[in-house]
Amino acid sequence: MNKDKKGYLILADGTILEGRRFGAERDSIGELVFTTGVEGYVETLTDPSYCGQIVMQTFPLIGNYGMMEEDFEGKCALKGYVVREYCDTPSNFRSEYDLDTFLKNNDVPGIWGIDTRALTRKIREHGVMNAVICSEIPENLDAVKEYMDDIYADYEKIKKLAKERKEHRCGNFEKVDGRTGITLQADKCCAVAEVLGENCAADELLLQWADYKRGSYQGTSENGTGNHRVVQ
Question: In angstroms, what CA-CA distances link 94 with 81, 97, 105, 175, 229?
Fold first, then answer.
């Protein structure tokens, strides 16, 4: 990998940030979001809830312990990956390959050398916005600004991922919804994981909320697959 290949992260408001490319070498437009996890970038990269989005890690060093397929949450559905510093020589006896190889295998472009702290503050103040990872600065940003019109093309992909997430399994130390962590404690708390599909009716959610308020619903909820505005 050529770690000196110049690249740009350009926001829909015209902000241009220069960095270095890694991962897939194509350009990509997506909704820029950030995650503050100190560890767990493997799980972030394979979390279907980031479908159609460019994910930025606020933690400064990413890739230092490599990639382990056993820890994957599901299929990678990111549009791009943004980090401050990228480590191409992971040190971990469990590592199967490095982050750059993972991104290339999943056709996900990445960019490193970005001031992620400053960019996080910008997103916190102004909200998430569209962005593009590219090798050349485009003449105009129309395609980036209009990305929400195109994101509906991801709806079928979101539905497919949501369907794959909807499964009912039980047992100790099994992967439920592709998540190992949920079931490591299955023998201590619960044995069944329920993942609602993309067409879950509102009344079903209200019933579960009523059970929760009565104290009879024992479980957790998390964000679903992709951008929620797409599937409303």
Answer: 23, 9, 19, 18, 38
Residue with tokens 């404690």: 185
Write out the chain's pLDDT in tens, 232 residues: 566 799 999 999 999 999 999 999 999 999 999 999 888 999 999 998 898 899 999 999 999 999 999 999 999 999 999 999 999 999 999 999 999 999 999 999 999 999 999 999 999 999 889 999 999 998 888 888 877 645 555 555 555 665 555 443 333 334 444 444 444 444 444 444 445 555 555 555 555 556 655 665 555 555 555 555 555 5
Determine the Cα–Cα distance for residues 121 and 127; give it in Å rounded to an integer: 10
The predicted model scores a pTM of 0.72
Query: SS in 3 state form for 91-137?
Result: CCCCCCECHHHHHHHCCCEEEECCCHHHHHHHHHHHCCEEEEEECCC
